[in-house]
């Protein structure tokens, strides 16, 4: 019985981290979605302040989420779980902005938003800039 328990523990410890794989998939899908948005609506985004802000915000949260996945060996899922709710929110804002401006919405954007919003129970807690 102990041998079976030991093997199970080793398999879990040595096996792929499902949470990390899902985090990597979320980031890859969000990257693809934002690239498609840039390709299909790039010129329109540049001329529309609402779309520009939404695209830049999504890009910032994507970058921070990528960094969190890269830091996984040292931080575990904590950094990603802190960033991903804001990535989900920003992808939703981008999707809504595209819809309001009658721009195409890539399916990968909807999928990335759904993955990011369901990756954790946490909510987006944006940090306020410190006043100097």
Set down the secondary structure blueprint.
Layout: H1 2-14, H2 18-47, H3 49-70, H4 72-75, H5 78-100, H6 107-118
Helix pairs in contact: 2-3, 2-6, 3-5, 5-6
Structure description:
There is one protein chain. With 132 residues, the protein is mainly alpha-helical. It has one domain: Four Helix Bundle (Hemerythrin (Met), subunit A). The protein is built from six helices and no strands. The longest helix has 30 residues. The radius of gyration is 18 Å and the shape is elongated. 28% of the residues are buried. The C terminus is likely disordered.
What's the order of the H and E elements?
Answer: HHHHHH
> Globular, elongated, flat, extended or rod-shaped: what is the shape?
elongated
Computed CA radius of gyration, to the nearest angstrom: 18 Å
Structure annotation, total helices = 6
Q: What structural class do you assign from the helix and strand content?
A: mainly alpha
Low-confidence stretches: 128-132
Assign the CATH topology.
Answer: Four Helix Bundle (Hemerythrin (Met), subunit A)
What is the CATH class designation? Answer: Mainly Alpha
- Domain module count: 1
In helices, the fraction of residues equals over 70%
Largest β sheet strand count, sense and barrel closure: none
Give the structure's gist in a few sentences.
The protein is mainly α and 132 residues long. It is built from six helices and no strands. The protein has one domain: Four Helix Bundle (Hemerythrin (Met), subunit A).
């Amino acid at each position: 019985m102990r041998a079976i328990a030991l093997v199970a523990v080793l398999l879990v410890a040595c096996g792929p981290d499902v949470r990390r794989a899902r985090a990597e998939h979320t980031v890859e899908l969000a990257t693809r979605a934002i690239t498609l948005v840039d390709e299909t609506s790039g010129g329109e985004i540049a001329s529309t302040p609402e779309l520009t802000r939404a695209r830049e915000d999504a890009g910032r949260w994507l970058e921070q989420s990528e960094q969190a996945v890269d830091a996984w060996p040292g931080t575990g899922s904590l950094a990603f779980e802190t960033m991903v709710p804001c990535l989900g929110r920003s992808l939703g804002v981008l999707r809504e902005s595209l819809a309001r401006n009658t721009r195409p919405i890539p399916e990968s954007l909807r999928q990335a938003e759904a993955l990011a919003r369901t990756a954790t129970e946490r909510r987006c807690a944006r940090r306020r800039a410190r006043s100097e």
